[in-house]
Structure formats: C-alpha cells, structure tokens
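Quiz preparation item.
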C-alpha cells in the first residue's frame, strides 16, 4: 500500500500518518466490515477488478506499507512530523507490519 502527501508542513505529514494508520487498522482488522464495504466500492467504481483478496483478513506482514513525502526527506521534516512518523513506524512494526518511508 502506498500513500503520498506533500510534506511541506507538519499538517501534510500528519494527514499522511493518519491515513496510513487508519487504513492499516481497518484493512487488517479481524472484523471484515471494512473489507466488505471496500469490495462494494470496487464493484461500483472499478468493475471487473479482482476483489478476491478482500474476502479474508491479510496477515500484517503480507503487505508493505509505504509512506511517501512529496518533496522533503525525513531528516528535514518539522520536529512534530518526525515524531509522528517515528511513533507510527514503531507501532506498526511492533504489530508485524513492514513500514517504509521515502521521498521524491
């Protein structure tokens, strides 16, 4: 899963962190309600796309969670943005996710 945001300010990075955190919580949740609703969205807006992968909960290590900063590398992000990225990375890797951060 890839998520990208313009990292010019802390607010952009906060949105990126929250987007990845919530998506991981919902997609990998034992409760399959989110995956069921996502299947409906795919069938409505992306007809013909294979949604079989949404029928069962993926293991946390099945996917790589990639956060992309459009512009700023992590070392020059604002302090609170760095803190949020660190906290998210730590929390997700402790739960068995593979988490990456990069910039372009």
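Solution:
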């Amino acid at each position: 899963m890839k998520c990208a945001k313009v990292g010019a300010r802390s607010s952009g990075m906060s949105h990126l962190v929250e987007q990845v955190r919530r998506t991981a919580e919902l997609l990998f949740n034992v409760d399959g309600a989110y995956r069921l609703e996502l299947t409906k969205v795919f069938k409505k807006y992306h007809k013909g796309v294979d949604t079989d992968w949404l029928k069962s909960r993926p293991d946390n290590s099945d996917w790589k969670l990639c956060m992309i900063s459009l512009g700023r590398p992590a070392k020059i992000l604002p302090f609170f943005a760095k803190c949020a990225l660190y906290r998210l990375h730590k929390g997700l890797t402790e739960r068995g996710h593979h988490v990456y951060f990069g910039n372009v």
